[in-house]
Fold this protein.
Amino acid sequence: MSVVDLVLSAEVARVPLFDPTPPAIQAGRRALYDTHATSGLGHVACASCHVDARMDRLAWDLGDPSGAMAPAGHLNCSLVGALIPCPDFHPMKGPMTTQTLQDIVGHEPLHWRGDRDGLEAFNPAFVGLQGADAPLDPAEMQAFEDFLASLHHPPNPFRNLDNSLPTSLALPGHFSPGRFGPAGQPLPDGDAVRGLALYREGFLDGSTPGLQVQCVTCHTLPTGLGTDHRFRLNLLAPAASGYDPEPLPPGPLGERHLMLVSVDGSTNVSMKVPQLANLYEKTGFDLTQTENRAGFGFLHDGSVDSLARFVAEPVFDLDSDQDVADLVAFMLAFSGGDLPAGTPVGPFEPPGPPGRHTHAGVGAQLTLGAGAEPPRLAQMRALAEAGAVDLVVHGVVLGEPRGWVLDRVQGLFLSDRDAEAPLTAAALRALATPATPFTWLLVPEGLGVRLGIDRDEDGFGDRTELDQGSDPLRQSSVPGAP
Ligand code: HEC
Ligand code: HEC
């Protein structure tokens, strides 16, 4: 932290503070955020558009009028691609919305079109787009990739606390698209479980009998991305329905080959099947309404205003506004994992790549003074005991800030003072008072010890270190050392 003299307008001192972020994040995040290090005039960085490594809700026309056609033939262009290979990429790609950088490593090729083999292919953008003097060197590029590989999709706000899909989700802000009745009416509550069933088994895509596929045929679970298998039509294939799956080996830099399709009717013909994990962040544009809080919606160019309109497009075989509502509910609740994986033999549900998702319970928090255990805390504890998340507790006892974490093997809470006996949940609750309440918090599985009792993970509890005069914030400082 810098100390700034307001008269001199100058930094006069730096105070070191504990930075709890892991080394991979500390080393690599500079490439995303540091405008001085990564741009010519010191005023932009990748995060200028990829805000917080996410997106800016804008479309940018980043084509290159002096560029050349780029080949698409080496890519996994499947499905229709088996019959019509993906056409090459034109350098004038037209407006495209900024994509999130969450959960992209291992999900190559990148960009809406899949025209970049891997993250390394973005290195020229530091110079070409941001005017930096030089691209990252290989070590900086690797650090950047390791940092990006740590980014998970956050807890899904539309899922239930136990990460299950909502069966009766109110849909304020979503309106009937006009296909099955008047446009702009409130949608009924959506059942995401039924939405998932339609997505996997409804044969919604295509109106010609026998030529329909499932949403999940392209958008595999749990990510929505295409399969890493080449997905060919082969009428002689031993598996049912002429489906011939062929797993693809990773490329020289570890990059994968997720499926592209050649979609007639899109302004770009060769398109990667996009992930569907951040759809809920793209809502707010609806042309059935007179007030909007966004000007871009769905698809690569943001041209489809709402999710409801998207799933009600004539290309999809839906029957009612209830179908629309159920699919919208599922699209909103999509991220979070815990969705059925595909199979290597099913013709319409190919295996998909894994994703980096966070359990919906993460971040759930209760602050309690005294009294009986509320049902929500019992539910939080059950989730942590089952291993889906970790549970940490913080509070002040006898003037000392203290921490605990649930040890699910014993079903007891370990404290930040190593010599103390573990406590039952009831005993721990009894330590809180209305004046000094305790906060119970669900955190990602695996982070409980660090966030609850041992910040520097040196094996000595935070309070033990304070008692014995070592620094609970530094791994190199432990009790008993000179
Ligand atoms: C001017 C805004 C802007 C800036 C600055 C910017 N990007 Fe992007 N980024 C975009 C847009 C727009 C897309 C989608 C373009 C496409 O699909 O062709 C994108 C897509 C990406 C993707 C593909 C993500 C995926 O899921 O396939 C990556 C990776 C990426 N950008 C990395 C970077 C890096 C690294 C930098 C800094 C050197 C950067 N971007 C700077 C706007 C920007
Ligand atoms: C043939 C493969 C295929 C099938 C089947 C398919 N999609 Fe897609 N989907 C794509 C491609 C490719 C895109 C990107 C198109 C573009 O941006 O121009 C896309 C885009 C989307 C988007 C927009 C993503 C965003 O971030 O804006 C949503 C939502 C979506 N699909 C949902 C569905 C649903 C729901 C179904 C079933 C009713 C379905 N898709 C069926 C290939 C497919």
In short: The radius of gyration is 26 Å. The longest strand covers residues 389-397.
